[in-house]
Amino acid sequence: MTLIHSILGYLVCSAAIIYAGSRLSFYGDRIAEITGMGKAWIGLILMASITSLPELMTGVSAVVFVDEPDLAAGDIFGSCVFNLLILAVLDGFVKKPLTAQVRTTHVFAGAFGIILLTLTAIGIILAGRIPAIGWISSMTPVIFGVYLAAIWLIYHFENKQPKPAGDLIPEEHDPRALRRTLTLYGFNALIVVAAAVFLPFFGDHIAEESGLGMTFMGTMFLALSTSLPELVVAISAVRLGALDMAVGNIFGSNIFNIFILGIDDVFYRKGSLLSNINPSHLFTILVVILMTAVAILGLLYKPQKKRLLLAPDTLMIVVLYILLLGFLVMTAGKG
């Protein structure tokens, strides 16, 4: 397969993800209105699990079919970085700072994201010193447990909070409307999954033909495409006025991404995934933790003014992203 064919295949898959992802926010918003579950919760769980399916399918394909654990790990961590950058993109779409307009309860999800990222970093650092469970890292069951605990705690925490007026359930609704909405939501989700299956194959060939390393390829190039659903869904949600659904989707996707890393570890049968990836991923993890901490500070402080079209918190997120990009460009071809 030539480089041109790989790039064309990559673009076609990305276009399919963009198209289907653009419909998910609309149907997610409708599901929230019909069920009364709340737009923040819909974004955190339903939207995040669907928009993160490309990372799941890409990761499993990368470790099973093309034997590239760095591609899988880079896609996960790079997607986390890009998801947080989306906060800055969304901030540019609204007049008032984004974090000043959404619920402070998103801090809960952000904090769990930091916990899961820290556990992952510990697993990578201690990969050769902690016992494995068969071929699986002993940190993987811990990540699974923390993820499930996070979802349970966030669910109960959200239920205790007063719901915004826009999240209230309508007094009357047609049951057929929910079935139709769920069907269309599922159809678009299938398109996203189908396109994501082929991304690692084209990404692997592009990395090989272009001479870029797998760490750079996964963290920036492939992660950009698999994060396109989050980007398109988030922008569409903002245009619908569902800011909490957009922000919930971003933090929820990052939590789910670390859960996916554990799934990748289960499918990678040549040993622990965390012990077979480039340690340079630790720098990306550190940047994701810093970006998440900055976002949490923005949610708590709620800045009221913008500078250079962005609030101070989202501007700092952009700076951190640029610094990471520079580091990865300098180390491209070495990982």
Describe it.
This protein has 335 residues and is mainly α. 75% of the residues lie in helices and 1% in strands. The chain has 12 helices and 2 strands. It has helices spanning 3-35, 39-51, 53-64, 69-91, 106-125, 139-160, 175-210, 214-226, 228-239, 243-267, 281-301, 312-331, and strands at 132-133, 136-137. A two-stranded antiparallel sheet has the order 1-2. A hairpin with a 2-residue loop joins strand 1 (132-133) and strand 2. Helix 4 (69-91) runs parallel beside helix 11 (281-301). It is globular.
Structural class: mainly alpha
Number of helices: 12
| Main sheet properties | 2 strands, antiparallel
Number of strands: 2
User: Percentage of helical residues?
Assistant: over 70%
Low-confidence stretches: 167-171
Q: Return the string of H and E elements.
A: HHHHHEEHHHHHHH
What general outline do the C-alpha atoms trace?
globular
Short note summarizing the structure:
Helices cover about 75% and strands about 0% of the residues.
